[in-house]
Specification:
The chain has 327 residues and is an alpha/beta fold. The protein is 64% helix and 7% strand. It folds into 2 domains: 3-41 and 129-323; 46-122, no CATH class. It is built from 14 helices and 4 strands. Helix 2 packs antiparallel against helix 6, helix 6 (131-150) runs antiparallel to helix 13 and helix 13 packs antiparallel against helix 14 (297-323). The longest helix is centred in the middle third of the chain and has 30 residues, at 173-202.
Length: 327
């Protein structure tokens, strides 16, 4: 059984499984479209909750949305990205609560005291995060989870001992995993990219990325999703789906896919920098701000290491379990 035959077999099996079709070709485009419209609707401006008794003498800036509140909102509103900061007036001073860095905190405080936005603040993530970055950040976790859902063709063959029979044919373990990975990669990439392009063309949503760059960025997510799915499925066995979903939710949140978590804690910053999602978010935000993709060679290389490393490690674990008769 060669690559083409395995690929055809996967396609036939996918078409016979309604749940897989819904996830691969309906859910991904639907969630991508929702991310586009949600980001476009909110415009991702820095929203600051200002707790005070009246709205007199509130500073104004077109890039900052200030919402006057009578009571201090829950801390979770910062974590979920509803507010980038919560400001409380205390006499002549302003108490700022935020997940941003101390520098951003000082800039927000200075804005309320002086009514002016400094040049440094105009470039701050607190003020504005581009719509393209928010869209890709939003769908990043979704596409990572789709990799877990779509790798089920491999786990189904493995758990039903079909894999052992397949490997008795001319197709070796490398050919089989390569084909499964290619099928999963394309099933994530094609519907997601086409949805973004159609949305950009038909609904005239300015995603702030060219079609070529957008293809590369979505392809990177798709490749990372595929490799990590193989790794988790190989290492965690039958418990891979639930465990990997929890890992993706936590790491995507910490990496700033929804709200940037920055600070002056060097240890925490170093730990968060290990996450591949963090490198991806740094890269796409820089590209949207006008930099060329080649200026992020270190992030590209780091993501490539994750993609190749996860695939090779997952393949090695799978091969070792085949040898000992686990599969």
């Amino acid at each position: 059984m060669n690559i083409l035959n395995i690929f055809k077999n996967n396609l036939y099996r996918t078409l016979s499984q309604k749940a897989t079709i819904v996830m691969a070709f309906i859910l991904i485009p639907l969630m991508t479209g929702m991310a586009v419209f949600f980001s476009e609707k909110t415009e991702i401006k820095g929203s600051i909750g200002y707790v005070c008794d009246n709205s007199v003498s509130i500073p104004r800036d077109p890039n900052i949305n200030i919402e006057v509140l009578k009571e201090k909102p829950a801390f979770s509103s910062l974590l979920m990205g509803k507010y980038t900061a919560i400001v409380e007036k205390s006499g002549d001073n302003y108490n700022v609560t935020t997940l941003k860095s101390n520098k951003d905190k000082e800039l927000i405080e200075g804005f309320f005291k002086t009514g002016k936005v400094s040049d440094a603040n105009s470039n701050s993530d607190t003020v504005r995060k581009g719509i393209g970055t928010n869209i890709l950040g939003y769908i990043l976790m979704i596409l990572l989870m789709q990799g877990i859902a779509l790798i089920n063709l491999y786990t189904e063959d493995r758990d039903k001992k079909t894999l052992r029979r397949i490997l008795m044919s001319p197709a070796n373990e490398r050919v089989y995993l390569l084909t499964q990975g290619l099928f999963t990669f394309l099933s994530i990439l094609i519907p997601s990219y086409l949805t973004l392009v159609i949305t950009k063309l038909v609904f005239r949503v300015d995603i702030n990325f060219s079609y070529g760059i957008l293809f590369i960025l979505v392809a990177i997510i798709s490749a990372l999703s595929t490799s990590l799915a193989l790794l988790f499925a190989s290492v965690l066995g039958t418990d891979y789906s639930l465990a990997s979903t929890g890992i993706y939710v936590l790491t995507s949140l910490l990496a700033g896919c929804y709200v940037s978590l920055t600070g002056n804690n060097s240890v925490l910053s170093m730990l968060l920098g290990i996450l591949p999602q963090k490198a991806y978010m740094t890269m796409i935000q820089g590209i949207e701000n006008g930099k060329h993709i080649y200026q992020f060679s270190s992030q590209l290389l780091y993501l490539l290491v994750w993609i190749v490393g996860a695939y090779l490690l997952g393949s090695a674990v799978n091969r070792s379990k085949i040898k000992v008769g686990t599969y």
